[in-house]
Amino acid sequence: MRFKRITAVFMACLLIIPTHLVSAATNESSSDGTYSEKSEVVYATLNANGDQEEMYVVNSFTVDKPGKMVDFGPYTSVGNLTNLTDMKLKDNQVTFTATEDEFYYQGNIENKPLPWDINVSYKLNGKTVSPDELLGKDGRFEVHIDTKANQKANSNFFENYMLQISLPLNSEIYQNIETENGTIANAGKNKQVTFTVMPEKEESFVVKADVKDLEMESIEISAVTSSMSIDSPDSEDMTEDMKSLSDATEEINDGVGELNEGIAELNNGAASIQEGSASYKNGINKLANRSSELIKGSKEIDKALEEMSQSVGSGSNETNVGELKKLQKGLTEIANGLGETKKGLSDLKKQYTKAYDALDKSMAAIPVGDISDDEIKKLKASNADPEVIEKLIKTHKAAGAAKGTYSSVKKAFQAVNPTLDGVIGSLQKMKTNVETMADNLGKSLDNMNVDESMKKLQQGLSTLSSNYQSFHSGLVDYTGGVSEVSRSYGNLHGGITDLTDGTSELENGVNDLHEGTTELAESTNDLPDQMQTEIDQMINEYDKSDFNPVSFVSSKNKKVNSVQFVIKTESIKKDDDKQESKEQEKEKKGFWDRLFDLFR
Length: 600
Hints:
Layout: H1 2-28, E1 34-46, E2 52-65, E3 67-72, E4 75-80, E5 88-90, E6 93-98, E7 102-109, E8 116-124, E9 127-129, E10 139-149, H2 155-160, E11 161-169, E12 174-179, E13 183-187, E14 190-197, E15 203-211, E16 220-225, H3 236-313, H4 321-365, H5 373-380, H6 386-443, H7 450-524, H8 527-542, E17 560-569, H9 575-588, H10 591-597
Parallel strand pairs: 1-17
Antiparallel strand pairs: 1-2, 2-7, 3-6, 4-7, 5-6, 8-9, 8-10, 10-15, 11-14, 11-16, 12-15, 13-14, 16-17
Helix pairs in contact: 3-4, 3-7, 3-8, 4-6, 6-7
């Protein structure tokens, strides 16, 4: 009985004390109150695809002076989370009386868009599946999460807030979890996949796993201002490395510049070789083409000498002076023919000598020796263009081949001039002999022993004809050799032309390479400063320490210290599990629990 009395007294006290407190609060707060700062926590629920469903905001005030206060927001209803005093809501204006140091109230909102457009989609065994069809399924499961700016909301939050997205996955249901841009951490027996979205960024994430009897907890998304100040890192060592890289690039450019100059000189030398080779080829071709004319002229001289010798040998004592004068004239014409032939060979000798000297000097300019394997390895390790290096090696080998071919035929080229000198000397002797015979015949026509003179003349002509036949045979052999040299040199000249084309192409390639290394050297010249500028820009991009928070619910609200977002998607569970979860949440999250959560 006594216990019942104590209980009744205690209950009466409980009923009296709040009433007394409310009455006291009402009397004390008849005047306007003030607060130093306000905070907002926005709670939003999404369906399993990310579409917005419900939203409410918990507002907290740090009270300086108790009394009547006003807040703003497009609420559909409000609830006091601090005490039992009434609150009024009219025309998006909330009026309340705050007595404690901290005052909390909840405002429910409809149709106010979040700053982020969040889309969640699902795939099972490679096929897109709606959330309603996923429950209890097995297979390879994928969750796709896309975030972007919501154009219908205040852009301040997208530009200055950082998102953290968490997926709690039951280890008994999910195996072989994979993701590229997130982190996978242990959360007791389960796994938790977390993604971060920086301010002003739109991202897409994918989580893959093997699933059995599929169920899925809510995806949790929190958003807080990225207001931490980021200190600039010590980049001195890095800038020194960049300076070394810049210097090395400049050295490479200088080396390529020297290579370019060397290749230009090589190309000029090859062009000189090609020019000298072309002159020689033209000269030897002219000489070969004139060979048939030389043979034909020499054959006519040989035939004339033979006919004259036979004519004089078969003549009688009745041979008159008129016939001898014709003979004298014929000898003079032969001497003149021999003179023209000698002159033609002398001109050819001059052209050949000039062409041969040019060719010999050009070939001598080609450096002796081959590129070793070690030198090739060093060249390939120089960071030069591999295609240019291959062209350089091929050109060097072509130049060496041309020099080797020339060395093997040089003796034949050197033998041409002495042979020409011998032929020209023989022609000069024969010309002199024929001229002497013609002069002596003219002097003795008026007073001579015809028979005796004819015998001597016949002997001289016979000897001359015989010697000329030997000369003619040598001339035929010589012209045959010239023709063979002309044909063979065509192949050598073709190789020299290919060499010149190769060095020209190589020069163009190295010139392009030098332009590229010059551009690279110029672009990396201030690389350390560029790198420091990039670091500063990156830090400035994510340093939001100068951001001043604004109210999410109304621009009329002042002294806003912080705004946070807590967002959850609908879970994919069996109905009884969902109901049990909601009941447990209601049991666990009563009025005072939710109030205490704000202090935890």
